[in-house]
Amino acid sequence: MSHTRLQQRRRRFDSPSRNDASDGRRRILFVDDDPLAGAAFERSVRRAGYLVEVSRSPYEAIARAKERRFDVIVTDLRMPGMDGLTLLERFREIDRSCVSILVTGMPDVDLPRSPATDGSLLAVFGKPWDDVAMLESLDRAFTLCERRSALSKEHKLDLLRVLLVEDNPADAFLTKRALETHCTAVVEVAHRLRDAELLLDTCEFDVVVSDLSLPDGRGIDCIRRLRGAAGEAPIVVLTGLEDDEVAGQALESGAQEFLTKGELDGDKLGRVIAFARHRGRFVAQLTRLASYDALTGLANRRTLRDRLSHAQAVARPDGSHVALLAIDLDRFKNINDTLGHEAGDELLRVVAQRLQTVIREHDTAARLSGDEFAVLLGKLADPEDALTITQRLMTDVQRPVELVQGTVGVSLSVGISVSSTGHETLDEMLRSADEAMYQAKRGGRGRSVPPAQVAHARGLERLSLEMELREAVREQRFTLAYQPQYRLSDGELAGFEALLRWRRADGTPEPPSTFIPILEETGLITKVGKWVVEESCRELQRWRAAHPGHDARMSVNVAGQQFETPGLVELVRDALATSGLAPNDFELEITESVLMRDTAHATAALLGLRNLGVRIAIDDFGTGYSSLAYLKRFNVNTLKIDRSFVADIEQEASTCIASAIITLGQQLGMEVVAEGVETWSQAEYLGAAHGLVVQGYLFGRPGPQTTDFAARVTTPRLSRPSPVLTSWNASTQTAGE
Question: Euclidean distance between the first and final Cα of the chain, in Å?
Fold first, then answer.
């Protein structure tokens, strides 16, 4: 480095600033257990005028960071006792504005995604590093520090805060001027995607305006990365590329608006940003309603499912563990019955607040229903740590609560489930935790039970169940129950859903949620599924004979494994031919996860079934991916609103979700079926317009024969306007405006 550049660097960073008051210089902390590496870094960087501290222990480095502030942390990746990524996460907990650089003897190492790599990590250098390149990265790091400091001051003003991501200097100048002139905005410019991510990690912006072509990012990948870093801030794409397909992909990936640079006009840009912010706030509100419990503010089941998948993905590379706690309030019904529901609701809110206070930052507390809670524990070094956390949780939560109606005691029964494979679903882990929780209740309540105490008994029961299922498959000891589906507007029968049933050797009915997963795990579902398709077709033909002149279809659930097995299309074709049914009379219900499978067999099976003319329905829509691209690709006929939204239809979140699904289905020309309709109040909320189809105990419990159900039911006149349809009409009118 030349003497002139060195002097310029010294003048730049020797001026007083927001850092350590001793001399005003930027501070760097270098952490490496190798003394030679520390000495080499200190020599090169001190000559450039920086203030450097060297530490050979990550634990000592953490102690220093708690005592005084550092602008940049440079750390080795491999160190005894704590790796570099873990150290950076600890630094983020102390000071999120700190920028970090990683050095390693393995420059080609594939770093796992973590808060450290997604947040403050600016660069990775191999050993030995190039001094000039290192100093240039330090320059960038300190520039980011200056920007963060300036932005934190400007954010206190009532100005629009915009992050402009643009590498072309001329385009950046014109766009920045337009934003400042027409939007009264404070504009921060980032020329690289990585710099934008670092700024978004520690600074809040009202909107992000980004090009699609950057030095370290291209196309839709830019939008996905910015979406992950921007939180709820809307993203407006401003690019020189005029391509409707790319625009559609950008919007699907999280952008709110798409503009070409040829359309750049100050007034238009201002209107677009205002609209993007308005729509972003609306989407964020809907997301909040759909993701969190309205009473307690805790995560709901849907959010807990997403958090579990993320926790498992984080745990697999580093060998840590994930656990789930099933928590039930003992004798909660007595409190509701004695003191009233207002007291019960207040008690639930207090328990939720205490859970939030006790759990760690990366854990998740959720309310599942009623007085049932769950806590997801991630990053456990040892499975036994789950029991330690549970005991602390019970101590802190099980304290008397002062209510207006009087003082009540709090007693919890807790069951613990630890992820063993790292791939368990939420339902699987909840089943395991619930078993332990019920065992805790049987032991006297106010207790917790770890999984080890129930694992042996559960294993024996699982083995016995599997042996009985194999015998049942050989002897074809399964039955089908049929639940009718009616159009709510006129009471006409639309069809049936075939439901698999099985009784054990002693006559005890086994829940489908128990035996169907075992059929799938053992591969027996293929044989059973073949029988279900053939028998349901024969049953529909019997109903047709009993009700000539009436059309009704048959819906059958198909497991994802059946799509992986060749021959599904041929099986359906043969069953239809044998029974004499038309392809349009038969509908296969699949979950969204099946649509997302990108295997050759699954894709070929779906396309083959559509070419055959068989209808495709998406079950439990709204609880999974909700991918519009896949709905369009496979020409889906029916969307089924999950019963959880219908059960809570009078709550604002469920009403919004139901109306959104109805709107989506109608605009895409699909039929919409609401599952789990049990009361006329729920029917009134859904409304009778738009050909909505309903299914539930209100209209018919599953029966052994389709002939038990009439071709039409009497539906009383709805006594009040449907909130769902009111929301639906409002949304369509807004879209029209």
Answer: 61
Residues forming beta bridges with residue 481, ordered by sequence position: 499
Task: Give the HSE-up count for residue 621: Cα atoms under 13 Å, Cβ half-sphere.
Answer: 30
In the chain, % helix, strand, coil (3-state, to 5) comes to 50, 20, 30
Q: In the beta sheet, which residues pair with residue 695?
A: 675
Residue 191, token pair as written in the block: 């020329």
How far apart CA 610 and CA 412 sit, in angstroms, is 51
Is residue 569 within 8 A of residue 561, CB to CB? The reply is no
Is residue 703 packed enough to be buried (19+ CB in 10 Å), middle (13-18) or exposed (0-12)?
middle
- Cα 736 to Cα 715: distance, rounded to the nearest angstrom: 32
Distance between CA atoms of residues 466 and 504, nearest Å: 11
pLDDT recorded at residue 102: 86
Q: Which two tokens stand for residue 124?
A: 């990775």
* Bridge partners for 482 per DSSP: 498, 703
* Closest by CA position to 331, among listed 448, 444, 450, 454: 444
Q: How far apart are CA 294 and CA 487, in angstroms?
A: 31
- DSSP lists the bridge partners of residue 616 as 588
d(CA 449, CA 435): 9
Whether residue 512 contacts residue 500, with contact meaning beta carbons closer than 8 Å, is answered with yes
| Residue 522: C-alpha distances to residues 462, 467, 473, 518, 519 (Å) | 12, 11, 12, 6, 5
Distance CA 335, CA 333 (A): 5
Q: How far is residue 608 from each of residues 44, 602, 635, 706, measured CA to CA in Å?
A: 66, 10, 12, 28
pLDDT at 287: 62
Return the sign of the alpha-carbon dihedral for residues 222, 224, 225, 231.
positive
Residue 339: CA atoms inside 13 Å, Cβ hemisphere, count?
Answer: 20
**616-621 own/partner pairs: CB under 8 Å, 24+ apart:** 616/587, 616/588, 616/590, 617/555, 617/587, 617/588, 617/589, 617/590, 617/673, 618/589, 618/590, 618/591, 618/592, 619/557, 619/589, 619/590, 619/591, 620/591, 620/592, 621/592, 621/661
Beta bridge partners of 218: 213
- CA separation for the pair 211, 441 (Å, rounded): 58
DSSP single-letter state for residue 19 = S
**What pLDDT sits at residue 376?**
95
Parallel, antiparallel, or unpaired for β 207-210 and 160-165? parallel
Tell me whether strands 51-55 and 586-590 are parallel, antiparallel or unpaired: unpaired
Q: How many helices (H) and strands (E) does the chain have?
A: 28, 27
3-state secondary structure (DSSP) of residue 617: strand
d(CA 139, CA 371): 54
Low-confidence ranges of the chain (pLDDT < 50): 1-23, 114-118, 155-157, 452-457, 719-721, 724-725, 727-737
- 735, burial (CB in 10 Å: exposed 0-12, middle 13-18, buried 19+): exposed
Q: Are 712 and 491 in contact (CB under 8 A)?
A: yes
Residue whose C-alpha is closest to residue 115's, from 362, 299, 382: 362
The residue type of 322 is: V
Host H or E run for residue 210: strand 207-210
- Output b/e per residue, 563-581; b: 16+ Cβ within 10 A: bbbeebbebbbebbeebeb
Concatenated DSSP letters of 46-79: HTTT-EEEEES-HHHHHHHHHHS--SEEEEES--
Report pLDDT for 453. Answer: 46
Q: Report d(CA 642, CA 301) in Å as an integer.
A: 13
Report CA-CA distances (Å) from 78 to 32, 109, 114, 316, 436.
Answer: 8, 11, 16, 19, 40
**Amino acid identity, residue 567?**
G
Burial class (CB in 10 A: 0-12, 13-18, 19+), 90: middle
Contact 387, 415 (CB under 8 A): no
